[in-house]
Design brief:
- The structure is a single chain.
- The chain has about 500 residues and is α/β, with parallel strands linked by helices.
- It has three domains: about 5-135, Rossmann fold (3-Layer(aba) Sandwich), CATH 3.40.50.1390; about 155-315, no CATH class; about 325-405 and about 450-505, no CATH class.
- About 40% of the residues lie in helices and about 15% in strands.
- The protein has 17 helices and 19 strands.
- It has helices at about 15, 20-30, 50-60, 70-75, 80-90, 110-145, 195-210, 215-225, 250-260, 305-320, 375-390, 405-425, 430-445, 450-455, 460-465, 470-475, 480-490, and strands spanning about 5-10, 35-40, 65-70, 95-100, 100-105, 155, 160-165, 165-170, 195, 270, 275, 285, 290-295, 335-340, 345-350, 355-360, 370, 490-495, 500-505.
- The chain has a five-stranded mixed beta sheet with strand order 2-1-3-4-5, sandwiched between helices. A three-stranded mixed beta sheet has the order 14-18-19. A three-stranded antiparallel beta sheet has the order 15-16-17.
- A hairpin with a 5-residue loop joins strand 18 (about 490-495) and strand 19.
- Helix 7 packs across helix 8 and helix 12 (about 405-425) runs antiparallel to helix 13.
- The protein starts with a strand and ends with a strand.
């Protein structure tokens, strides 16, 4: 039995969620008895709309008796799509009823001409809208005005980008103890919200700098605010709920793209995408081809140029990072490669140890051996220490560095005495513990602010630094410090099918 099908469409998510346009169309169509409603949130100029394609498929299968819509331009604003739609309608003898325009008729030449003219006018109106948008964009470029869409953390005010400091959410750990008693408070009550989008943006940047893994930083942000991960654009019909997105990042790649936006550094960029006629997905231009206007809102920047440069280093080092997010030894992931097949090795965790194994093991690669992270670390540290010792002493000492104190000299002598004792008694656990403790103390005395000193350093600076010529320095690095320094220095470590590190390649 054939069915009645109604179709609704709006062009933007704003029309669907905030302007009630989609809800209004659907409510009118729901008044039709026994009707199935299909809808899209997309431009009428594109034919690959899921709801529209489903409608065409039903008509082609002979399942439809009547098609309903509020207006003809809701069905399509593309004349070629209209001609295809008209052909199917004629073949399968389907009636098209438009609530605001009446029944579409093609039985006579005059009636068909009227329908065709309406379709041409709908396409022409779409082109006029695009022209007006283009002219408005040119005008904004000439005035160096803010673009229509502001990046997360910003809003437009008087054609300028300003930080969005309006409170919009409350962190889970900052909600009042009696929050369950505040259900009658308005949504914008200061008792309920105290964090703005600008606050979240600053916190996200800081977490990426600290954790140095965009995905892991993003996960922490979501957990702290109790937010659900965004899973793509889903049209919302029930606008009785607040469906506005607070956290826009669904993946580490999207937060990386956000960090690259010049607006965050106080600049405005235009022509960031290649615009071609009838192209749905615009192609991004390289950054050096953007039309840049610097310092358009310097007092509203979220990050400095120095912070931006540091983020680029982090993103560059993360391009090859794959695997789990456990704290084990994730800083090695993306640096370990299999000699047999040349692919990167993946992290495997047990309750006791962490290993790296070839991702293609059993799938054409004969490397079935795993290598423990401690063995990898030892091989990499040995190579870095050996390379540093081969380098000439650096004259590029940090400002304010002083001559070695007598306390440090005495500690060095004590370590040497313990090493001589260990040479005679290599299995003495007490001596081994004493050596590790003294090496830790020596590293801390050499540079109590080591992390701060090395986070901005180049690979050449690190490998030539006097501390790098101390084996204790490498072994006493924390995981956070190794993340920074390995990113700078290590290109890859190659593991043989025997589970041994056969080579370590550096960036320098």
């Amino acid at each position: 039995m054939k069915q009645k099908v109604a179709y609704a469409r709006v062009s933007t998510q704003d029309q669907a969620n905030n302007q009630n346009a989609l809800k209004h169309q659907i409510s009118r169509l729901e008044a039709i008895p026994d009707v199935e409603i299909l809808y899209d949130v997309d431009s009428g100029g594109y034919s690959d709309r899921p709801g529209f394609q489903q409608l065409l498929e039903k008509i082609a299968n002979g399942e439809v008796s009547v098609v309903y819509a509020t207006r003809g331009d809701r069905l399509t604003r593309n004349f070629q799509d209209y001609l295809h739609f008209k052909k199917l309608i004629k073949i399968h003898n389907v009636t098209v009823e438009l609530l605001d325009e009446g029944v579409m008729e093609w039985e006579t030449a005059s009636a068909e001409l009227i329908s065709d003219i309406r379709a041409l006018l709908a396409e022409n109106e779409r082109h006029q809208i695009k022209d007006r948008v283009a002219q408005g964009f040119k005008s904004r470029r000439k005035r160096k005005a803010a673009c229509a869409r502001s990046p997360f953390g910003y809003r437009r005010a008087n054609d300028k980008y300003v930080l969005d400091n309006r409170p919009c959410i409350c962190r889970l750990d900052r909600r009042p103890a009696n929050y369950q008693d505040l259900t009658l408070e308005p949504d914008n009550s200061p008792l309920l919200i105290n964090i703005s989008r600008a606050d979240i943006a600053r916190e996200t940047i800081q977490k990426i700098l600290e954790i140095r893994r965009p995905r892991k930083a993003l996960r922490q942000i979501y957990e702290e605010y109790g937010a659900c991960r965004k899973k793509g654009r889903i049209p919302v019909i029930n606008t009785e709920e607040d469906c506005s997105e607070l956290l826009i990042w669904g993946l580490g790649s999207s937060v990386i793209e956000w960090c690259q936006n010049p607006v965050l550094r106080g600049h405005t960029a235009y022509l960031k995408t290649v615009t071609q006629h009838e192209v749905r997905h615009r192609k991004a231009r390289p950054a050096d081809e953007w039309e840049m206007h610097y310092d358009t809102h310097p007092e509203q920047r979220l990050m400095s140029e120095e912070t931006f440069d540091e983020l680029q280093i982090i993103f560059q080092c993360n391009r090859k990072k794959m695997g789990a997010f456990e704290d084990g030894s994730y800083y090695l992931t993306g640096l370990v490669y299999c000699q047999s097949c040349g692919e990167s090795m993946i992290l495997k965790n047990t309750q006791v140890h962490s290993y790296y194994g070839c991702r293609n093991s059993g799938l054409g690669c004969n490397n079935n051996k795993n290598i423990r992270t401690e063995v990898l670390d030892e091989a990499i540290i040995g190579h870095l220490f050996e390379r540093s010792c081969r380098e000439a002493p650096s004259t590029n000492i940090e400002p304010g560095a002083k001559e070695e104190s007598s306390e440090i000299s005495i500690l060095r002598e004590q370590i040497q005495d313990v090493e001589r004792s260990l040479a005679r008694n290599p299995n003495n656990l007490s001596l081994q513990k004493s050596k590790r403790e003294m090496e830790q103390e020596l590293a801390e005395k050499l540079n109590p602010n080591r992390t701060l000193a090395f986070t901005q350093a180049t690979a050449e600076y690190i490998i030539n630094h006097p501390q790098a010529k101390e084996l204790a320095f490498w072994y006493t690095l924390s995981k956070a410090e190794r993340t920074v320094i390995y990113d700078r220095l290590v290109e890859r470590a190659t593991v043989s099918s025997a589970g041994q590190v056969i080579s370590v390649t550096l960036h320098i």
